[in-house]
Specification:
This protein is α/β, with parallel strands linked by helices. It has helices at 39-50, 78-88, 131-136, 155-166, 204-220, and strands at 14-19, 23-27, 30-33, 54-59, 70-74, 93-96, 103-105, 125-127, 144-151, 170-175, 185-186, 188-192, 195-198, 202-203. Bound molecules: cytidine-5'-triphosphate and calcium ion. Cytidine-5'-triphosphate (CTP) binds at residues 18, 78, 96, 98, 100, 102, 128, 130-132, 147-150, 162, 166. It catalyses: N-[(R)-4-phosphopantothenoyl]-L-cysteine + H(+) = (R)-4'-phosphopantetheine + CO2; (R)-4'-phosphopantothenate + L-cysteine + CTP = N-[(R)-4-phosphopantothenoyl]-L-cysteine + CMP + diphosphate + H(+).
Length: 221
């Protein structure tokens, strides 16, 4: 008889990952969005699945193939992402990599806005729900809650404040002052209750593999 396939260190665990931007409609053909390729989040979903986790990947609009063994839920807006995250619970861990739009247009136009008007009406914006902060106070909060923070300056200081404000266990702080956006490498610092570590600049797949190993170790402990 064949030997059973070795179970991965995350076998039996469910991990939720958000990735990509959200699109907030202005009218049927226009939207507000954050800059995000989704590459880092998709790489993390792939790395978690490789370690044997059941992975739910809630993805905003991106041009990426679904990683092997990952359950993907496509969404467009922050409100849809929040609903999909809630529907995916419970989870042992959640990794919120998505670049969620902080605001949406209060009332998207039903018809395409025409430029023949003298000047466009100012867009009235309202705040989107903070999905990560909401998860941290949810009765079904995952045991390990990991957020990301894209920063252009004072990276660790901003990420440390974000960790406290949002009730996350870890924040992966991302220095986006260089050419990270859409690229294949990432320079990150991992902020935890113990302080922070600086990882060397690595391919996004290597950042993902290292983070997945750390998540596995935390869930085992
Ligand atoms: N996040 C979220 N829902 C939002 C906004 C952010 O879940 N509406 C999550 C992101 O997925 C990320 C973390 O919160 O894991 C940090 O996002 P970021 O935009 O850096 O933080 P903000 O609190 O929105 O602060 P700011 O944009 O002002 O830097
Ligand atoms: Ca934000």
């Amino acid at each position: 008889a064949l030997a059973p396939r070795a179970a991965g260190v995350l076998a039996g665990r469910h991990v939720l990952v958000t990735a990509g931007p959200t699109h907030e409609p202005i009218d049927p053909v226009r939207y507000i969005a954050n800059r995000s390729s989704g590459k880092q989040g998709f790489a993390i979903a792939a790395a978690l699945a490789e370690l044997g986790a059941r992975v739910t990947l809630v993805a905003g609009p991106v041009a990426l193939a679904t990683p092997a063994g990952v359950d993907r839920v496509d969404v467009e807006t922050a409100a849809e992402m929040a609903a999909a995250v809630g529907a995916a619970l419970p989870a042992d861990a959640a990794v919120m990599v998505a670049a969620v739009a902080d605001w949406r247009v209060e009332q998207a136009a039903a018809q395409k806005l025409k430029k023949d008007a003298a000047a466009p009406a100012p867009l009235a914006l309202v705040a989107n729900p903070d999905i990560l902060a909401g998860l941290s106070t949810d009765p079904r909060r995952p045991r390990l809650l990991v957020g990301f923070a894209a920063e252009t300056e004072q990276v660790v200081a901003h990420a440390t404040a974000k960790r406290a404000r949002k009730g996350a266990d870890w924040i992966v702080a991302n220095d986006v002052s260089g050419d990270v956006m859409g690229g294949d490498a990432n320079a990150v610092q991992l902020v935890t209750a113990q302080g922070f570590e600086t990882w060397e600049r690595l391919p996004k797949a290597a950042v993902a593999a290292r983070l997945a190993e750390r998540i596995a170790a935390a869930l085992a402990g």
